[in-house]
Every structure is written in C-alpha cells, then in structure tokens.
Amino acid sequence: MFSSLRPAFVLLVSFTLITGVAYPLAVTAVARVAFPQQAGGSLVRVAGRSAGSRLIGQEFAGERWFHGRPSATSPKPYDAMVSSGSNLGPTNPALLAAVHKRAEEERASSGNSTKAVPVDLVTASGSGLDPHVSPAAARWQVARVARARGLDSTVVRALVDRHTEPRQFGLLGVPRVNVLELNLALERMTGGR
Amino acid sequence: MPATGIVEIALSLGVLTAASRPLGHFVADVLEGRRTFLSPAVEPLERACLRAAGVDAAHETGWKPYATAMLAFNLLGVLAVYAIQRLQHVLPLNPRHLGAVAPDVAFNTAVSFASNTNWQSYGGESAMSYFTQMAALTVQNFVSAASGIAVLAALIRGFARKSSDTIGNFWADLTRVTLHVLLPLAFVFALVLVSQGVVQSFGPPLTVRTLESQSVQDIAIGPVASQVAIKQLGTNGGGFFNTNSAHPFENPTPFTNFLEGLAILLLAAALCHTFGRMVSDERQGWALFAAMMLLFVAMLVPAVRVETSPNPALAAMGVDSAPSLLQPGGNMEGKEARFGPASSAWWAVATTAASNGSVNAMHDSFLPLGGLIPMALIQLGEVVFGGVGSGLYGMLVFALVTVFIAGLMVGRTPEYVGKKIEAYEMKMASLVVLLPAALVLVGTAIAVSVPAGTATLGNPGAHGFSEVLYAFSSAANNNGSAFAGLGSANPFYDGMLGVTMLAGRYLLAIPVLALAGSLAAKKRAQEGAGTLPTHTPLFVVLLAGIVVIVGALTFVPALALGPVVEHLQMTAAAATH
C-alpha cells in the first residue's frame, strides 16, 4: 500500500494538471479562435444589445408573441441559472392537472376551441430551457398572434414556415421552430407594433 | 416521424459497429505497449509522468499489487474531489462566489465520480465552481474511465497469458489509456461540440435582456464542452448542468445528440475487439459484441415504441400526441423539441445499457414501461456494452457463468478461451454477479421502510417506489442516471447511495482482479471434442439468455411493484374514460 502512495499522488497531480487544467484551457483557446460565437453562448444581438441566446429559451406570455414550451425551472420559468425538468411521473395527478389547465388555456386563447392542442405546447421540456417548439405548436399559435398584431394570418403562417428548421442533414432530430428567432422576425416584420 | 427516428438509430448502430473494431485494436496496441500513430506526440509526456511517479513501466506485478495500486489511486481521488468541493469558496475560478459544497453532498459526489458512477445529488450550474468542475470532476471523468479499462486489461491478460504470475502494471495502464486514448478523443470531440454550440468559457454567467418583458435573464455558462466530451466517452455521465445533455448548452443540435449518443457506446463496444485482439482470437470479441448488441436491440425496440406513443391520460384532455409531419408527438413531458421521443428513448437505452448515466430527457417522466426498460438494463449488471472496462469484465464474468452452466449440462470441465474454469473462478464470478443485486434490493428495502427514505419522493404511489428502486439500481451498478424527482441531496440518500456506489465498484473490481491472477497462472488447456466453442451464434444466444435469466429472476418481483403496477393503473384509468 505505501509503495503505491508515491505513484498515486504524483499521477493524480499530473492528471489534474493535464486533464483538469491544460485540456480545458486548450479547448477554450482553440474554441475562442475557431468558434467564438458558439463558445460564448450563441448570443443574438439586437440594436447592439444581447437579446438572448438562440439556444436558450426565454419566457413569452403575451398574446402578441409565440410561446415556447412550459418550463419547470423554479421559482420562475426559463431561469437559465437552474435548469430543471418537472420530473413528474406519467400518472402523477399534479402532471395531469397541469396539462389539463394548459390545454384549456391554450384553447381559450387561440380561438381553436375544439381542436386538440399539440402535445409539446402543454408538456414541460427536459431542461426547462427548450428554445424550440414543434411546427405544429407554432402553427397552432398563428391565429392568436396574427389577431393580436393585426396581421393577416397567411403572412404569419408563412413566417412560421420560413423559420421551420428541417431535420439536420435531412436525417437527424425532428423539424422544429426556434421561438426567439421567430419572435425576432415577427418584430422586424411589424416594426415593433 | 418514427420512420426517421429508425433511420437515425440504425445509422448510429451502423457507425458503432464499423468504428468499434479499429478503435478496439488501437486500444489493444496501447495496452500492449506497441507504437501507434500518436506515440511521437504522447510518449514524451507519458515517460515524464511515469518517471516522476517513480514507476518502471516494464515492471509488471501480480494481481494483489495491481489491486492495491488501483485502490490507492482511487482512494486518493475520492479525497481530492472531496477536498476541492469543500474548499471551492477559497479556490480560483469561482465567478459566482459559490460556497463550499455541503459535506454529505461532497462525499457522495467524490465517491460518485471516482467510481465512474456520476450520480449527481447536486445541480451542476448552481453548486460547483468552474475549478471544481475542471480540476475535480473532469479529472475523475478521465481517470475513473482509465481505471475501469486497466482492470479489464488485467483480466484480458489473465486469459491471454499462460503460467504467468503477473497481469500488468496498473500505473502504466492507467497512464497510457488516459493519454493515448481518452485525451485525444475528448479533445477532438470537445471542439466538434463547440462548433455546434456547446459553450466553452471561463467568463461569468451571461446577462441578456429578454425580448418580451425586457427583463434580465442570467444564463449559466462555463467550460462545458471539455467536460461533456469526456463524460460521454468515458461512460461517466456527470453533466455540467443539472439537466445534463437535455440542456441546450450541453447538447444543442440533433447532430450533437447523434454524436454524444454514439460516444456513450463507442469505447465500451470497441473493448470487445480489444479483447479479441489480445487473446489472439478476434471471433471471441465479435461474439461478445454480438451478445451485447442482441440484448441492446431487444430493449431498444420496445423503448422507442413506448415513448413515441401518447400518454393515454393526455388524449382524454384534448391533447394531440399523434406523430405527423409537423410534430413528433408521443410522450413529450421531460423531453426536448429538437430531439423528439424516438431519439430520447434511444439515448435512454444507450445510457443505461452502457453505465453512462447522462440523460437527454427526464427518465422520471417516461411512461411506466418506457422507464422500466432503462431500469432493467441497469439491473442486468451494466454488461450490455456497460461501463468502459467494467462492462466487458462484467460480461466476461457472465461468459464464465455460461460455460459453467453449459459444462454442467454435458458433464465436462468448462473452458473459456483456453482456460479451465474451476471452483475458485466460479466463486469469484458468483460474487460479481450476486453482490450488485443484493445491494440494489437490500438498499431499496431499507429506504422504503424508513421515514428518511420516503420523505423526499418526488411522485406518489408506485412511481415513488420506482424512484427509489431506480436510485439503488443506478448506484450499485455505477450508472448514475436517476428518476430525478427523488430528492437525494440529503444525508440519508447521500450516505446510503455513496456507500452503495463504493461497494458496487470496488467490491467487484477486487474479485475480477483475483480472477485475472488465477487465470494468468493457469496453463493453456488443449481444445478437445468436449470443448464448447465460444464464438458461435449458439454461444451468443446462450450468453444473452443467461444475462436475461439471472436479471429477471432477481428483479422481476421488484419491477412488478413499481413500473408494472403503474402501467396497469394507467391503462385501467384510460379504459374508464
């Protein structure tokens, strides 16, 4: 045992310096040169100010905006300092009550009072920071947003379609809409009306 | 949509199969001290480390000194990780001025990372400073993986050598695996991840002004890519953020999801071919790979089917969960929109088949049978690819059990790759198979019997029981994933699960090394007419069958009380609507 102490100590210190200090520093140095935008958090700038990260969802609640997924971060939704899912089980009454309430609210606000609500619009994401919704969830909101902004719904619908990202390389993941980018485009289109 | 999910998954398995052989042979070259294309770059560093440590790489030892070295290094690792967490408030790189980690959480985390479990009773972004994440956790991600591969290397040498009293040099194995295999892979992978949007920064949290409310949103960042790369490759699984690879800064795109999912299985699968190469019979490696793949696909198919189907209770509320061109549908609670339920189910199966434990969706919110499958995969003993090193040494132990049972049936002394399997080997193998099962069942029984164990359940009823069963399964088999609704950051669970992780890792590694020593000392048995060939489809099916039977006999009653009951309740409730 004692003869193992020196190599154990020296190698732990060596690996701490190599894999715990030099390696992250080297990755950071290369990343800063090669991919500065991504390494720094994929910030979106509007009028010289950071309006968010395109990868991190933010809270949209008003009817003039496309909403993202319900967020389970606590105490406030879309708190990017404490990512969290709801961790509610599939038969938990708390989950079923929350989904029921969201579905009713969505139907009331959307003018689609009889249709079924897309599932991702009424279920909390894994991270609580999901920046995307499904194309179905975005289209569901078109009528409400168009009405609130006094726009023709075909124009808003076309905007949603333009912001629908296809599967990556035509093959990976699922089609999706980045909510922040869609709302920014909406703002640009309407000039902040 | 499900069709595309299948294309993506089939592509993953194809790339895995194709890449595992060359990588496995590369690892064999490294373990046997041959020159590789990386030698000119890595060897000076390797020699410097070993010289400073006073180690002569050519000096090999028997199993006892090998085990002592492994335990000494891991014990020191536990102490270092504990100390860094407790002192992080006075150490550098702590821009948020986080305080010292609580003693129980620090103990649990130290054990968790040294044992390659990476159970997280803390929320990464709100508890650990950048320094802790790098110098404590990232380091253990490397060396715990390398320790696992070192133990495996010793066992493989036990099979490969004859009449030998040595099984290798732990320090040389540890150093070579870390520097030749893990570090270069992680470096390249980390940069690919950054290119897709994984953050890598030492700056303080970002501050942005949100679009609608014009209020401040603080966004946690850090040296994330460097940690995510190795936590995927080394079957560690401990994420930088609380929600692990569901967090967009750990796993921003479907492409990162594809690569990170592949990385979970890559090294563990490759090691099958390392084994084949080192025992000079590649067919043996392919047979183990095939048995693992068989079990993997058998679990994957139902998992994807379950999670892409709706939660029946939601359908009654007018929620549309049907897959279409416009939405993936399925069970989306706890899942991310960019991945959808098929990719999330694939990941859940991969991360629990391998003892990785990273998640890209919240397993606690899976449908009852969707959650049963990851739990069952962990309970099989983490041998379906499994942890790097530990997965294959577990599977080799099951191979010994298989030849033993087959030998009993025909009345012959069992042999495996030229070694007679006798009473001593079977005693060690039995320990390895039985101990984790005992840890899971006894631990769960204690926890559900005392108030401290049931006080922090995140869900009522059968699902709450599942949370506890999952926790002990995960800890005893060094997986690290969770039904995360269970509040485990308290002295009861930190202590119980910490001890379980220690026992699950080290009390198994010791008999495995004893097995290595005993096998190495044996002569090579001549293959005779009574030798069961261990590279045939028959053996593959037999081996997979033994793994399933042992697991099922042990865990079906416990699973019946948790996910099976919940499934029946869910379908009964749906039928009354």
Automatic annotation (TrEMBL), chain A:
Domain of life: Bacteria
Subunit description: The system is composed of three essential subunits: KdpA, KdpB and KdpC.
GO molecular function, one term: ATP binding
Keywords for this protein: ATP-binding, Cell membrane, Ion transport, Membrane, Nucleotide-binding, Potassium, Potassium transport, Transmembrane, Transmembrane helix, Transport
Protein family (similarity comment): Belongs to the KdpC family.
Species per Swiss-Prot/TrEMBL record: Eiseniibacteriota bacterium
GO CC terms of this entry: plasma membrane
Protein name: Potassium-transporting ATPase KdpC subunit
Free-text function comment from the UniProt entry: Part of the high-affinity ATP-driven potassium transport (or Kdp) system, which catalyzes the hydrolysis of ATP coupled with the electrogenic transport of potassium into the cytoplasm. This subunit acts as a catalytic chaperone that increases the ATP-binding affinity of the ATP-hydrolyzing subunit KdpB by the formation of a transient KdpB/KdpC/ATP ternary complex.
InterPro entries in alphabetical order: KdpC
Gene giving rise to this polypeptide: kdpC
Pfam families: KdpC (PF02669)
Keyword RNA-binding: no
Main subcellular localisation: membrane
Localization per record: Cell membrane
Entries under HAMAP family matching the protein: KdpC
Topology with respect to the bilayer: Single-pass membrane protein
Stored PANTHER family: POTASSIUM-TRANSPORTING ATPASE C CHAIN, POTASSIUM-TRANSPORTING ATPASE KDPC SUBUNIT
Automatic annotation (TrEMBL), chain B:
Alphabetic keyword roster: Cell membrane, Ion transport, Membrane, Potassium, Potassium transport, Transmembrane, Transmembrane helix, Transport
Primary location recorded for the protein, binned into one broad class: membrane
Keyword Transmembrane helix recorded: yes
GO molecular function, a single term: potassium ion binding
Signal peptide (UniProt feature, chain positions): none
Domain of life: Bacteria
Pfam family, any one: KdpA
Bilayer topology annotation: Multi-pass membrane protein
Transmembrane segments: 66-84, 134-156, 177-199, 258-279, 286-304, 392-410, 431-450, 496-517, 538-560
Coiled coil: none
Subcellular location: Cell membrane
Cellular component, GO annotation: plasma membrane
Protein's job: Part of the high-affinity ATP-driven potassium transport (or Kdp) system, which catalyzes the hydrolysis of ATP coupled with the electrogenic transport of potassium into the cytoplasm. This subunit binds the extracellular potassium ions and delivers the ions to the membrane domain of KdpB through an intramembrane tunnel.
Family matches, as HAMAP family: KdpA
Similarity annotation: Belongs to the KdpA family.
Quaternary structure annotation from Swiss-Prot or TrEMBL: The system is composed of three essential subunits: KdpA, KdpB and KdpC.
Name the record gives this protein: Potassium-transporting ATPase potassium-binding subunit
UniProt source species: Eiseniibacteriota bacterium
Taxonomic classification: Bacteria, Candidatus Eiseniibacteriota
The encoding gene: kdpA
